């Protein structure tokens, strides 16, 4: 069936094949993304094998004098470096290894090779002490470079034997497995300038050099040090925060007023303006749909005022701002208390001095009255009565079952009659 269908289709289009309709997307060459971040791998060997090795401050695990370490995925197109230190007892050697992402580098560290006269040697793309540049990736596996010849004299520098090759695949998982069961380790990222990187894309920073500004004007580090030592910087941490969020036209209108009729308001605030999609406001909970949105916040972030338009212009915003600063109409300064002094001034102090002996006399009179009452109660016999009355108010012990039994009644002796008594008389 297929053998009949294909000639039929080709016969309809002619010997040159069917033309591509004009509305169809045209063919584009396949583009391979070479921007994938890739790690670098180091196969380390020390001669003699009884050595300790560090890549910067990271100790490398060795098994029989061999080991493998791998960096995190690195940004392509840049150079990185590690300071390699090897120690055999009292003998220590140091090298500086420069490499690129995606390389697999074989590093041979020999104790008998002389160390340079300085503390370290920076490896470069050329020369026997550097990681050699590998050829472009191809379908065939890269062949290792031949080792460098031994140095003719100790002054030639460190001969750090390295062999590297680039991977044909961009995936980090395509790295060759560790040979001979070598122990593996993870290295930190160290930039070419020696800065240890914990994941920041430095390409997005404003240049590689340090930049210090004061009031929008760039100054040097020495000038900044002098200003800080002089203590001439004003502390603006207690000012209100004025934030304007909107498009360029709306923000410019507000900022122009803050430089003109609202200059006194701007002097009391720290002013910032952002477009609605800016990361500082878009994902921080700010309302960004105003035209524009104006925030006034306390130094701790408390929102004191927010308006989502500027329809009433500078005058309307000034009225809102003055309400924030409006004093309490019921406030009376003469009622403020100075806790260091007694209240109400001289008169209060005079009354306090005069009343002190009366308080003492009154206390003694109250004590004498209590004693007099007790004496009268004793003399009249009322004290015992009062004590008994108080004792009767105290609840007695609970009655038990045995105490509830009725006692037999005692027979009372009959009194003789009156008539019999008279007869006896």
Which features would summarize this protein structure in a list?
17 strands, four-stranded antiparallel sheet, 425 residues, Glutaredoxin
Task: Describe what you observe in this structure.
With 425 residues, this protein is α+β, with helices and mostly antiparallel strands. Among the domains are: 41-197, no CATH class; 201-233, no CATH class; 240-325, Glutaredoxin (3-Layer(aba) Sandwich), CATH 3.40.30. 26% of the residues lie in helices and 20% in strands. It has nine helices and 17 strands. The chain has helices spanning 2-13, 221-230, 248-259, 263-267, 279-282, 313-325, 345-380, 382-393, 418-424, and strands at 41-47, 52-55, 58-60, 66-70, 80-88, 91-99, 103-110, 161-166, 184-186, 189-190, 196-197, 212-214, 217-219, 240-245, 269-274, 293-297, 303-307. The strands form five sheets. Strands 8-7-1-4-9 form a five-stranded mixed β-sheet, with no helix packed on it. Strands 3-2-5-6 form a four-stranded antiparallel β-sheet, with no helix packed on it. The longest helix is centred in the last third of the chain and has 36 residues, at 345-380. The N and C termini lie far apart (167 Å).
Quick overview of this protein structure:
The protein has 425 residues and is an alpha+beta fold. It has helices at 2-13, 221-230, 248-259, 263-267, 279-282, 313-325, 345-380, 382-393, 418-424, and strands spanning 41-47, 52-55, 58-60, 66-70, 80-88, 91-99, 103-110, 161-166, 184-186, 189-190, 196-197, 212-214, 217-219, 240-245, 269-274, 293-297, 303-307.
